[in-house]
Write a structure and sequence with these properties.
The protein is of the alpha/beta class and about 270 residues long. It contains ten helices and ten strands. Bound molecules: adenosine-5'-triphosphate (ATP) and magnesium ion.
Amino acid sequence: MIQFEHMKKSYGVGADAHEVLHDVDFTIHDGEVFGILGSSGAGKSTLVRTINLLERPTGGRILIDGVDISNATGKELKALRAKIGMIFQNFNLFQQRTVLRNITFPLELAGKPKAQRVARAERLLKLVGLEEYADRYPSQLSGGQQQRVAIARALANEPKIMLCDEATSALDSTTTVQILDLLRRINRELGVTLVVITHSLSVARNICDRVAMIDGGNIVEMGETAELFANPKSDILKALIASAEEQNGRDEDEDGTPVAPAAGAAENEEAR
Ligand SMILES: Nc1ncnc2c1ncn2[C@@H]1O[C@H](COP(=O)(O)OP(=O)(O)OP(=O)(O)O)[C@@H](O)[C@H]1O
Ligand SMILES: [Mg+2]
């Protein structure tokens, strides 16, 4: 369980201080796929990066499983980060390491013996469907394959929580669906809580149990995905839904219109 209690985040100090998250107060439950939706600059990444303290809150608290982590340092911080996996839009793999050695990296940091590291990495490669690719380098993989490696690496320390910052934004729609399927399996089969940042309504619809809409550093609404999208309250979510519908309409005009059969084709068919 991740609890934000009146959490705030400012960047800069003194006269330059600039608050980008204001009074964030909500809970993400164990086993949920929780979506954070909002436009660019809304504060999505900042919010999610406070969960593993890549950004430290400047007010309020964050509790994970009831423990206040807001001021964690040293060993406590290292242990916290080990239990929270993270994946990014641009995969962030180590280019000089093979696929296998990307996945064993967090296990090296955790001081696991080599045989155990390799065995675990091989199991994870199988889970993400890349067992043939252990000795390749990231540059020899497609974007979707690189994201699978990043997912395997994020799972190395058996995290309870995985943070996904625009994990499918650099991928085409078919690959996006495959990666979302993999993430859903990880949620269901391994019980990992997923926090999913996205700009995309269709990604949120596809995978999220609940969604929070964030605008200008405030959570403006939150709810079960289908219910929220059926009854949006905020202008920003209404506008996002309207623009997605307009886009869908355009896509249908371009590729969805059935091609009319050549004149007389049906009659010819019958005549034969
Ligand atoms: N390290 C930083 N120093 C100062 N300001 C920052 C820093 N990181 C983010 N900000 C500011 O905080 C606000 C929220 O940024 P954030 O990256 O969280 O937005 P986002 O919703 O993730 O946007 P995007 O969809 O473009 O990734 C923005 O105004 C941004 O300029
Ligand atoms: Mg961001």
